[in-house]
Amino acid sequence: MLKKIIFTLVILALLVVGLGYGAKGWVKSLLPEKAHFLALKESKMSDFPYLTDDIPAPRGKILAVVTSVDKMTEDKETGYEHTELARAYWVFIANGFTVDIASPKGGKPPVVIDGEDMGAYDYAFLNNETIQQQVANSIPLANINPDEYEAVYFVGGKGTMFDFPNNPHIQNIAKTLYQNNKVVSAVCHGPAALVNVRLDNGDMLLSNKNVSAFTNEEELFLIPDAKQIFPFLLQDKLIAQGAQFQAGTTYLEKVTQDGKLITGQNPWSVWTLAEKVIAELGYEPKTRQRTPEEYAVALLLTYDEHGFEAAKQALKQQPQAYQRILIVMHGVLAFMQLDISKGIDIFSLANQLKQLN
What we know:
There is one protein chain. This protein is an alpha/beta fold. Helix content is 46%, strand content 12%. It has helices at 2-18, 23-29, 34-40, 49-52, 82-94, 120-126, 129-136, 160-163, 168-179, 216-222, 226-229, 234-240, 270-280, 292-306, 308-317, 324-336, 340-356; strands at 61-65, 71-73, 76-77, 80-81, 98-103, 111-112, 139-140, 151-154, 183-187, 210-211, 244-245, 255-258, 261-264. The strands form four sheets. Strands 7-5-1-8-9-13-12 form a seven-stranded mixed beta sheet. A two-stranded antiparallel ribbon has the order 2-3. A two-stranded parallel ribbon has the order 4-6. Helix 5 (82-94) packs parallel to helix 13. It starts with a helix and ends with a helix.
């Protein structure tokens, strides 16, 4: 891992020198100004008509389940992923559902907030005192009656790998909703909730189901010793229990639906997954302006599927819509994966975006 990072820095230095820029100034110039990030942090629910206008009449309740585990090892903290809860929560309430938040232990669950992934909706969730009080008083899973809910959504976060798989309340909730023809959904590490769910007919819930989750490639890139830290690698476990694993592009959106079971690969899959939950519950998801991050994900998927020229043309159509930091991060990722040509292409797209804005 260290060799990859050093190699990446060397290549980046050579690249920026070759382009005639100072390395620090060039990389920094591809990112938004500090004022942009300061403005994001002030976001409020009232800033978004999607969240406040034309809310449908009450349609029932959706249960969101988060982890109670705050450490992977003695020196590695963890918890649930803030963006994975926030984005789905907004979609659910905007479409007329009440959201209950539960955790194995109840009370205030540990949270992971990755600053580089935070968008306006994510900060609005943090800045809403009513919602934060709800989060801080999550319902113990032992107190949950699954019959009260139209769907369950298992939020990701590495802590789930430790307290989701063997929790009898989680197994009962997932089994009950699924057998009652209701929706079971999970994202990123959230599908760890499904790995030991056995239906009343004796079959594993996952058997022969098309499923997506955080991949081995994504896991091991971020945590090379993941096999020693976690009780299992999630992709391997899902496959071992009969799932037909559907992997998408690394760190980009991938959502898989198999009837009432809806799963997503990573945090960039949440918006689409949540809207598929709404659709599977029988409602047309409310119209929503895509976020800058979603535009960036779409651009990177266009690059992967159709090449540089197609992405370049797509970028010109609505350049102000894209989140530049995510594109830059994927350029760095490509270099760290030693895919130099891809890294140069993505940095070129980021540079073009800078020129167009």
